[in-house]
Amino acid sequence: MDGTFTTTAFDGKQRKSAAVTTYYKHLVADPACVPTTNVSAWDNTIICDETVKVARVTFTSSQPSSIFDLASFKAEQIPDTVTNVS
């Protein structure tokens, strides 16, 4: 976000900067990311403070998949090629 995340609606805390994203297991493992306490308004989301960079990465037609064997990154596989995880 742009540093203007001034609402306390997510979990009761006010932040000067944050990223709100889908509840991914690899992000929630980071202590800088916390789930919402207001599930009715923020279903299946977490918030990460300014120390965490959240970026969208898309791979298409990566053949053979072994080209990523030595790559160091965390990713969650989507169930099919039609799912949009944004």
Shape summary: elongated
What is the N-to-C succession of helices and strands? EHEE
Q: N- to C-terminal separation?
A: 15 Å
Mean pLDDT metric: 75
* Discrete helix count: 1
Largest sheet: 3 strands, antiparallel
The SS-based structural class is mainly beta
Quantity of strands, as a count: 3
Detail the poorly predicted runs: none
Question: What structural keywords apply?
Answer:
mainly beta; 86 residues; 1 helix
Can you characterise this structure?
This protein has one domain (1-76). 5% of the residues lie in helices and 15% in strands. The chain has 1 helix and 3 strands. The protein has one helix at residues 25-28, and strands at residues 18-22, 33-35, 45-49. A 3-stranded antiparallel β-sheet has the order 1-3-2, with no helix packed on it. The two termini are 15 Å apart.
How do the helices and strands line up, and which of them pair or pack?
Elements: E1 18-22, H1 25-28, E2 33-35, E3 45-49
Antiparallel strand pairs: 1-3, 2-3
How would you briefly describe this protein structure?
This protein is mainly beta and 86 residues long. It has one helix and three strands; from the N terminus they run βαββ. It has a three-stranded antiparallel beta sheet, with no helix packed on it.
